[in-house]
Amino acid sequence: MYENVEPLNSVTHLKSGIKEINSFEYAKELIHAPITIAEFYESCKDYPIVFAKDPNDVWTALALTGYKDKENIFIDKKGQWDKNRYIPAFVRRYPFVFMAQADSEELTLAFDVAYKVEISKSKERAFFDADAKATPFLQNIMSFLTQFQNDAKATAEFIQQLSDWDLLEARMANVVTPAGETFTLNGFYIVNEEKLRHLSKKKREEVYAKNAIPLITAHLISLSNIQRLGNH
Questions:
Q1: CA 84 → CA 24, 32, 45, 94, 222, distances in Å?
Q2: Which of 119, 159, 177, 211 has CB atoms 3.0–4.6 Å from 230's, for a disulfide?
Q3: How far apart are CA 218 and CA 48, in angstroms?
Q4: Are 112 and 106 in contact (CB under 8 A)?
Q5: What is the pLDDT at residue 122?
Q6: pTM for this predicted structure
Q7: Mean pLDDT per 10-residue segment, the chain (232 residues)
């Protein structure tokens, strides 16, 4: 989604702001969106929730938003997301994002400069005030992204726990359209219900102690949405 990301600072962007985005055109090629455990209960109503590992073996939960290459089926030709569907925070945070700093664990707030404007054109969406202090608008953005970052970390830890309990299995699925076309989805993991039912007493106690059952249930319920993708 991001094309030209630039770190935000009070010197370079003192008189800048961000224009309002009224379209999800930027996410039209997004066929899956990372979500956090804080979003499972809403996401499971609309999307399949699956798990995947990145090249660094960090786990992520994904809400599937398409089955064809570069086609988000929940965004129409006018760039609008389907009404009454949950929109993942990963999508809503755009054009902002946290960037990693070289040789540091700290993150820097950055944004896609395609949406930068001078504050004279968008004062209510300015980054800084005349004293170079973050505006309430920017403070809210920072708070939102910080919460998302914390939730993402908790989500990775939750899925790693599922893996440690030996509950995950690689899976593939076919999506069949009304026209009879078949599309194969692969490269993801789901919870194996059979293994869940036959956990040892010790692991079962751990699962309940971690309050993992509601999240696992939301994930399993969401899988019925896989075939619905083809009927969208």
A1: 15, 18, 11, 20, 17
A2: 177
A3: 10
A4: no
A5: 67
A6: 0.92
A7: 90 91 95 97 98 92 96 96 96 94 81 87 84 94 96 96 96 92 94 94 93 96 94 82
Q: How far from 38 is each of 62, 78, 208, CA to CA, in Å?
A: 13, 29, 18
Q: Write b or e for each residue in 7-23: b if 16 or more Cβ atoms lie within 10 A of its Cβ, otherwise e.
A: ebeeeebeebbbeeeee
One-letter amino acid at 207 equals V
Nearest CA among 149, 151, 150, 128 for reference residue 139: 128
- At 217 the three-state DSSP class reads helix
Are 70 and 90 in contact, with CB atoms under 8 Å apart?
Answer: no
Q: 33 — phi, psi (to 5°)?
A: -125, 130
Q: How far apart are the first and last CA of the chain?
A: 23
Largest CA distance in the chain: 64
CA dihedral 162, 166, 167, 169 (to 10 degrees): 110
What type of residue sits at position 171?
Answer: R
Give the pLDDT confidence score for residue 222 in this predicted structure: 98
> Is 39 in contact with 174 (CB distance < 8 Å)?
no
Q: Determine the Cα–Cα distance for residues 10 and 33; give it in Å rounded to an integer.
A: 31
The 10 Å CB-count burial string (b at 16+, else e) for 48-65 is bbbbbbeeeeebbbbbbb
Read off the pLDDT of residues 80-106 as tens digits, 9 standing for 90 and up.
999 999 999 999 999 999 988 777 678
